[in-house]
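Researcher: Please predict.
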Amino acid sequence: MAEPLPLSYVTAQEIRCLLHWLSGWAPVQRERFLHDLVDKAVPWKVLPLLEGLAGLSMAPGKPPSIFECQMRLWDQWFRGWSEAERNEFVRQLEEVEPDMASRFYQEVAKTAGQA
């Protein structure tokens, strides 16, 4: 079994924070996160990207929910992570949320050959 890669302190804290949020999210929020994670893992899928952008619009005067803020932070963090750091996040997800990690792998496998 390979040893986990050393992470920067900041990335390690971001991953820890994200896994903590995940543990408190409602099923519908967890589902949205899972779909977002799959979309990030399979970047050539343009339609989900457009759907994700549409979901970021907010009604005038309505502040974002805590979950929406968390999703925005997750997106910013993920974009800043190296491939090794992204893989480390998935490795930790496997340990903490094995069912979600399994679903993630199943959903990514479904996209094979759909360029």
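Model: The chain is about 70% helix and 0% strand.
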